[in-house]
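Lecture notes, unit on protein representations.

Consider one protein chain, 239 amino acids long.
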Amino acid sequence: MTVPAEVREHWREARTSARNDGLVPALTLLSRALSPGVAPRGPRGHAVVPRELLGEFAESGDDEDGDGGPDPVPGLAVLGPVDATRAPAGPDAHDWGTGLAWLRLGASERLREACLAYLATRQVEGSSLLLQQLVKGALADVLIDHLEIEGVLDDLAEGPDDSPLTPGRPLDGPALARLQAQITQADRALLRLLGAYGFTAEGPGRAAYASELLADVYCGWPRPAEDTAQNVDSRKGNV
């Protein structure tokens, strides 16, 4: 199984958009590129989609609206499961899952930059928090995680002979789940550095939560696939 060059270019664009513009614009870009007119569904039939695309999905016969729960972040909707026999065909699962890993890496890099900017304004005993040894160590660990993830994804995007024009080989399911887990762990480490600010209305915690929700819905990490539906419902109730 191989991945066409144009799909891998969409992966890169999703990362750049998530880092520069945010999670919702990046998801809109990736959805239109890999799943035009169709809500991408996870293993249990749920979808996490930009609200602005709901009209486009309805035009193609996917008329499932948001199920009434709160949005994970403004502009993002969670769709309940639909009957697989009547749901339009969605994107290739490997292409979509790997694209989400690229998107989530960009969102995590955006979170890291926000964390650096915030900590630079905070002081302890007249010294910036960024100069504290434990803080520097935690940020270094996150940077290493990001570089490791970037290295794996770059290998996929370059293809087997390091050429962007050669079809690449996708990650298998367990490998992709481990990569998603590593992104989630990096996000959680950054939120710990932000303290309570990371979970305020104006803080970046909701975007990090939405990123983790994407991994849960589409990749099944860290919970077994059979628990995905219950996990989505419980998460929405806690937003």
